[in-house]
């Protein structure tokens, strides 16, 4: 199996404060990976470093290419559409994506829109939090890339939207693509995760296969994650 | 990789709309002014052209400022920075988009001048007569206009690259300085910027005061050298901006 | 379907499919839904479904036909075996727990008989 992402000795400081310190991480192709950690642990930062939106020291290789500027074509990130005015209609945003991303698949987007029940004639400013997240997910998944980075796609949204988003992830993730989903609330997504990466103390505290955790410790992903924060499970 | 044309297209759409809004407001205000004149004392000779001329100045500043806002917007938003295109291309496309939209605005202004001056035929011919007589022949007058246009455009470009430079330097330093020294750096930068603005303003005044002198053969070369000088400074700033974008400038987090 | 987060998901998927087969929802020779569809129906990862199905294919419970999909085995004997195995697995658990309560084998059989009799009355 090949690796879609390799991170070597990555360090990131912001305002002289170390956020991530000397991180190594390798992700294989075709996986769904949960990126877990407390708020402010550096989950978003890690994703931003991969896309080049944040600048750190160290090497990040995506699909064998270590030039950060080249990552953009391989990575689809759930950006929050800050570049658009709030009176921009969803279908205009989709047109923007269609134009600037050669890998944007209009057909897939239409399917996602139907599945997630998005009204594309609405303006961005008129969307509820759940609906906005659905739009972001539809745009992100409509691109056919090797690496998807979903930054807290479930934060603050109702459970019906959450279920829909989870289903669309299973349905539309290309078989050979890897998807990283960050969250600080695990139980909802635990069944769909192949692996979990836990960010704690400025580093990758643990990186394990989900079923290995269940077999090895006889506990759930959530319990395992919580135990790391309480120092319950001895860890090597 | 995304093509230059497509990025240009998405960048220009909103700016085109912005420019059109400015023009609409400008036209509305001109119409309002003229109606007011009709209602109060009747239209005077040259008033069509005069109203258009005077309202096109604030419209011009609005266009420069709003295009600059659009420019800066791109550098810190993931919506643009995640587009698979190199920083150099992103930067030049961005600047070019603003510039072309600004040119579009200028062309509309010229058209407005042409229309209103035709209405005010009598007034304008007397104005031209004033302008050309007794010092310059018509050819010289056109040269002056073109020269001023070019100088104006060069200054607009320089102001955009300078604003970007300040914005990007602040954004870059903010990432790795602690909060206290951040404020210090910001203050220093603001002082530097104010100094630069004053210098540039002084330069512009100097140029315009010399307008008559400029037209003598010797000064014409000087005038062109000045334009080239402005563009060279702008180009240097642009290069620094691209390097800043590549190495240090981060986007606003989610 | 609701999963127990403490138990490996692939294992629970296998049990779910066994259950479908025992209750006749999936009959011998039936075609299983496509892997991705199963994943969507169960809200689990495609890879996990793949792993569960892979193990069931090695166990000869499922038959994979190239380009056509996965089918429940038509080998009746294998299905009977599986049923026996599942029953034994359940009984094993009950037996061990009752043993832990210091019941002898005879007592366990007696309790089981009494229990079934009582249940039969309740159901009437």
Topology record:
The complex is a heterotrimer of chains A (236), B (254) and C (124).
Chain A: E1 3-14, E2 17-28, E3 32-36, H1 43-51, E4 57-62, H2 68-71, E5 75-77, H3 90-100, H4 106-115, H5 129-142, E6 147-151, H6 159-172, E7 178-183, E8 195-200, E9 203-209, H7 210-217, H8 221-230
Parallel strand pairs in A: 3-7, 3-8, 5-6, 6-7
Antiparallel strand pairs in A: 1-2, 1-4, 8-9
Chain B: H1 4-40, H2 47-75, H3 78-81, H4 87-119, H5 121-132, H6 138-176, H7 179-209, H8 211-214, H9 217-247
Chain C: H1 9-22, H2 35-42, H3 46-58, E1 62-65, E2 69-72, H4 76-100, H5 105-123
Antiparallel strand pairs in C: 1-2
Keywords (chain C): DNA-binding, Transcription, Transcription regulation
Protein name (chain C): GntR family transcriptional regulator
Pfam families (chain C): GntR
Describe the structure.
- The complex is a heterotrimer of chains A (236), B (254) and C (124).
- Chain A has a single domain (3-230), classed as P-loop containing nucleotide triphosphate hydrolases (Rossmann fold, 3-Layer(aba) Sandwich).
- Chain A is α/β, with parallel strands linked by helices and 236 residues long.
- In chain A, helix 4 (106-115) runs antiparallel to helix 5 (129-142).
- The model of chain A has no long low-confidence stretch (mean pLDDT 91).
- Chain A has helices at 43-51, 68-71, 90-100, 106-115, 129-142, 159-172, 210-217, 221-230, and strands spanning 3-14, 17-28, 32-36, 57-62, 75-77, 147-151, 178-183, 195-200, 203-209.
- Chain A has a 6-stranded mixed β-sheet, sandwiched between helices.
- Chain B folds into 2 domains: 1-134, no CATH class; 136-254, no CATH class.
- In chain B, 87% of the residues lie in helices and 0% in strands.
- Chain B has helices at 4-40, 47-75, 78-81, 87-119, 121-132, 138-176, 179-209, 211-214, 217-247.
- The two termini of chain B are 24 Å apart.
- With 124 residues, chain C is mostly helical.
- Chain C folds into 2 domains: 9-74, Orthogonal Bundle (Arc Repressor Mutant, subunit A); 77-123.
- Chain C has 5 helices and 2 strands; from the N terminus they run H-H-H-E-E-H-H.
- Chain C has helices at 9-22, 35-42, 46-58, 76-100, 105-123, and strands at 62-65, 69-72.
- Chain C has a two-stranded antiparallel ribbon.
- Chain C is elongated and about 55 Å long.
- Chains in contact: A-B, A-C.
- The A-B interface holds A 13-16, 44-45, 48, 51-55, 69-70, 72-73, 77-85, 96, 99-102, 151-152 and B 1-2, 6-7, 9-10, 14, 73-74, 77-87, 174-179, 182, 246-254.
- Chain B: This is ABC transporter permease.
- Chain B: The chain crosses the membrane at residues 21-39, 51-70, 91-115, 141-166, 187-205, 225-245.
- Chain B: Keywords: Membrane, Transmembrane, Transmembrane helix.
- Chain C: This is GntR family transcriptional regulator.
- Chain C: Residues 7-75 form the HTH gntR-type domain.
- Chain C: InterPro entries: Tscrpt_reg_HTH_GntR, WH-like_DNA-bd_sf, WH_DNA-bd_sf.
């Amino acid at each position: 199996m090949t690796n879609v992402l390799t991170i070597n000795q990555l360090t990131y400081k912001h305002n002289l404060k170390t956020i991530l310190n000397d991180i190594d991480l390798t992700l294989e192709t075709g996986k769904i990976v949960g990126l877990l950690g407390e708020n402010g642990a550096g989950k978003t930062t890690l994703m931003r470093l991969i896309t080049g939106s944040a600048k750190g020291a160290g090497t990040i290789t995506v699909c064998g290419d270590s030039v950060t500027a080249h990552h953009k074509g391989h990575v689809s990130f759930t950006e929050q559409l800050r570049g658009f005015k709030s009176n921009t209609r969803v279908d205009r945003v989709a047109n923007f994506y269609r134009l600037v991303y050669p890998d944007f698949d209009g057909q897939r987007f239409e399917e996602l829109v139907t599945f997630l029940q998005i009204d594309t004639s609405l303006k961005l400013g008129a969307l509820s939090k759940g609906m906005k997240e659905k739009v972001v997910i539809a745009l992100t998944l409509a691109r056919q890339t090797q690496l998807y980075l979903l930054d807290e796609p479930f934060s603050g949204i109702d459970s019906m939207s959450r279920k829909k988003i989870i289903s669309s992830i299973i349905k539309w993730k290309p078989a050979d693509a890897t998807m990283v989903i960050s969250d600080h609330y695990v139980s909802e997504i635990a069944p769909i995760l192949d692996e979990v990466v836990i960010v704690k103390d400025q580093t990758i505290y643990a990186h394990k296969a989900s079923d290995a955790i269940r077999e090895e410790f006889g506990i759930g992903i959530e319990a395992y994650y919580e135990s790391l924060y309480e120092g319950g499970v001895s860890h090597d | 990789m995304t093509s230059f044309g497509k990025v240009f297209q998405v960048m220009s759409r909103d700016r085109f709309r912005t420019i059109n809004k400015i023009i609409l407001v400008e036209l509305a205000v001109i119409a309002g002014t003229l109606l007011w004149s009709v209602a109060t004392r009747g239209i005077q000779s040259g008033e069509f052209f005069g109203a258009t001329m005077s309202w096109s100045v604030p419209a011009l500043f609005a266009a420069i400022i709003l295009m600059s806002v659009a420019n800066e917007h791109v550098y810190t938003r993931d919506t643009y920075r995640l587009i698979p295109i190199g920083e150099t291309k992103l930067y030049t496309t961005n600047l070019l988009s603003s510039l072309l939209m600004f040119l579009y605005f200028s062309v509309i202004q010229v058209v407005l001048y042409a229309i209103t001056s035709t209405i005010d035929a009598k007034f304008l011919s007397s104005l031209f007569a004033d302008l050309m007589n007794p010092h310059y022949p018509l050819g010289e007058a056109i040269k002056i206009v073109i020269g001023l246009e070019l100088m104006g455009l060069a200054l607009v470009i320089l102001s955009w690259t300078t604003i970007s430079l300040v914005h990007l330097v602040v954004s870059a330093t903010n990432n790795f300085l602690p909060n206290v020294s951040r404020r210090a750096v910001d203050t220093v930068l603001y002082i530097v910027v104010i100094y630069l603005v004053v210098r540039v303003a002084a330069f512009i005044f100097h140029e315009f005061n010399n307008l008559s002198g400029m037209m003598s053969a010797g000064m014409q070369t000087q005038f062109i050298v000045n334009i080239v000088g402005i563009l060279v400074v702008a180009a240097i700033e642009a290069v620094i901006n691209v390097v800043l974008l590549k190495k240090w400038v981060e986007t606003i987090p989610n | 379907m609701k999963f127990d987060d403490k138990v490996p998901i692939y294992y629970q998927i296998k049990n779910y499919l066994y259950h479908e087969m025992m209750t006749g929802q999936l009959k011998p020779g039936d075609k299983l839904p496509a892997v991705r569809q199963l994943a969507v129906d169960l809200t689990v990862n495609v890879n996990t479904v793949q792993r569960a199905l892979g193990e069931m294919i090695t166990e000869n419970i499922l038959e994979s036909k190239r380009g056509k999909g996965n089918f429940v085995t038509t080998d009746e004997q294998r299905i009977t075996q599986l049923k026996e195995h599942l029953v034994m697995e359940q009984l094993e658990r009950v037996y061990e727990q009752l043993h832990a309560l210091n019941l002898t084998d005879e007592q366990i059989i007696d309790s089981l008989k009494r229990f079934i009799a009582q249940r039969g009355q309740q159901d009437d």
